[in-house]
Amino acid sequence: MRFSVSGILLAAASATFVSAQPLSDPVEGVHQYAKREVTANGWDLSNKTYDYVIIGGGTAGLALAGRLSEDDSTSVAVIEAGSSGYEDSTKFLTPDADLYDSSVGTKYDWQYKTTKQNYMNGRRAVWPRGKVLGGSSAINGLYYVRNSKTEQNIWNSLAGGNWGWSSFLSAMKKSESFSAPLKSIANSEHIKYDSSSHGSNGPIHTTWPAVTYKPIGAFIEAAQSAGTQINDDPYNGQNWGTYVSAATIKKSDWTRSYSRTGYLDPVTSRSNLHVLTGHVATKIVFDQSNSRSAKATGVEYAASSSDTRHTVYVNKEVIVSGGAINTPQILQLSGIGSKSLLSSLGIDTVVDLPGVGENLQDHLSAGMTFKPKKSSYVPKSEITGDAKTDSYVNTAVSYVNMDSLFKDPDSILERIRNSIDTIVNNADVSSEVKAGQRKTYDAIANKIFGSNVSPIEILGNVMFGSINIQAALQHPLSRGSVKIHSKNPFTKPHVDPGYLSQDLDLTILRQGFKHIRKIAEQSPLKELIEYEQSPGSDVQSNDQWEDWIRQNGGTEYHPTGTSSMLPRNEGGVVNNKLKVYGTSNVRVVDASVPPISFSCHLMSVTYGTAEMAAEIIKNEN
Ligand SMILES: Cc1cc2nc3c(=O)[nH]c(=O)nc-3n(C[C@H](O)[C@H](O)[C@H](O)COP(=O)(O)OP(=O)(O)OC[C@H]3O[C@@H](n4cnc5c(N)ncnc54)[C@H](O)[C@@H]3O)c2cc1C
Ligand SMILES: *[C@@H]1O[C@H](CO)[C@@H](O)[C@H](O)[C@H]1NC(C)=O
């Protein structure tokens, strides 16, 4: 092992590692999960040196830690702000706990809120993010959908290569172990799939829940009648159409499969991987003697604002995997960001990189509810203790196209294309960031809108006693930012997605809700519905829909873009090897690097990014 401190020190540190609490049997029939030694004692890593220090033991962070530590001559440390989660295993392992014992609003959530949103009646939207080993993959909705070949190839061309669909698809497959649905479920939900589009050997298990409810199959039929055909292979680059997506569920015991259970728990015996929980990385420490590229020498961390600041040293690289909010925050605290922002806070600039925290894009969404004719059409709003029943999570989707949304799609496309100049000219960002944003807008306007790639996702759900159908904007023209406003790493940054700052977003999203009404009016779904509860028949005109969206819109939980992979002179933060510009050994690996938003949920993309990163890093070192 290439630890730069002596092996004796490391052995001493290992001895103080506490064993995770044995898991109590969470749910009848649920396996006793392998548990992994982790430590919550900050002194265990203090002044030690590792080849790689990963900031954030979340979705991407643990996936990368798992891959890099496969080589037992490589030492890896992970610093995670949240706890292990071993103390509360039912919550994480039970799929429908995502609704009925949600981690949102608990200590496992960073509990961010956006700044006041000017175009949403001044509301502040709630922005959950996982704060526990596994990160957001531990608390999310388990939808497993992929982006499209078209979108991935746009990412690739914006990044200047390395990230094309075929490589990225392989990386996503590498993280996945797919199991076919139960026959009864496949029949009732009209599930079609092609196993060869899925991975068979990866750490993250995917399948469909063991039970279903009548409105789901009915939604699939109704969405077709409303004009969007079933896709029988949505995982192979053509992700649009109507289907019930897979979920990150392990079929053998119907538990949630996530970054911790997939990439960390199984490697119980790897002594070259050390995981510290309950500690926030407060900054990356740099050696700036080479004026052209700063070299990270370590990471400072602490349990709380008043706690001892420790430093862990690094031989090779620091990898930031804090997610789309925390990653730009950590970079800014470390002196990487817009010089004017940093100097206004008294932070010395290490790299003047104005793109850090800019280009924030999120999927704005809201849900309509319909009262079911019979309460048996929808699940009980509780965890029952039966593993199969509790495996039910919502994943029915209809990714609709512009033709379904607009009577005259060409005129809306023209309006979008004609608006780009104004949007870019009015953007309150640096000239570099503008240049990159222009490229992303051009790609979205010309290659995404008007193609089969869907601008709106419709989600068919049964939950909390209702049939709930959501619409979510997939390629927002509105952009925002994440910016620190304090030197204190324990102070939350300002998160401003700029929701609806572009009118066209509102126009497109509003049509999505009208389309939901159309779906709800089709057989066999309409026969299951007693009436529309929310917003109800009072809302009819465009103005009324738009008011309702401003008052009810919120996040679909897919922020991205805050460490965009773009050229440096286009506001990029990382290059196409995920390396932060102006540094020799800092990378970002998480959902903040895609430069555009995708027509999908982000987990598949995040695992894919981590698998790509592992290959890149192994090849370079
Ligand atoms: C409520 C919710 C529902 C979602 N539903 C779905 C879904 O159904 N399907 C889907 O595909 N996607 C879903 N998503 C999105 C998806 O889960 C995320 O995009 C993805 O998991 C992000 O991964 P990440 O690695 O970028 O960040 P995360 O997984 O959030 O990991 C970041 C980690 O870094 C840690 N961290 C941050 N800062 C520091 C610091 N300074 N020091 C130490 N540790 C730090 C955090 O605690 C966290 O563990 C959902 C997200 C949420 C929040
Ligand atoms: C690490 O080094 C600092 C400064 O030399 C020292 O104060 C601290 O006690 C050391 N920590 C450990 C665990 O030895």
UniProtKB/TrEMBL annotation:
Gene3D superfamilies: FAD/NAD(P)-binding domain, Glucose Oxidase, domain 2, Glucose Oxidase, domain 3. The active site is at 558 (proton donor), 601 (proton acceptor). FAD binds at residue 132. Coiled coil: none annotated. The keyword Signal applies. This is Glucose-methanol-choline oxidoreductase N-terminal domain-containing protein. It comes from Malassezia psittaci. GO terms for molecular function: flavin adenine dinucleotide binding; oxidoreductase activity, acting on CH-OH group of donors. Belongs to the GMC oxidoreductase family. Its cofactor is FAD. Pfam families: GMC_oxred_C, GMC_oxred_N. PROSITE patterns: GMC_OXRED_2. SUPFAM superfamilies: FAD-linked reductases, C-terminal domain, FAD/NAD(P)-binding domain. Residues 323-337 form the Glucose-methanol-choline oxidoreductase N-terminal domain. Keywords: FAD, Flavoprotein, Oxidoreductase, Signal. InterPro entries: FAD/NAD-bd_sf (IPR036188), Glucose_Oxidase_domain_2 (IPR027424), GMC_OxRdtase (IPR012132), GMC_OxRdtase_N (IPR000172), GMC_OxRtase_C (IPR007867). Residues 1-20 form the signal peptide. It comes from the Eukaryota.
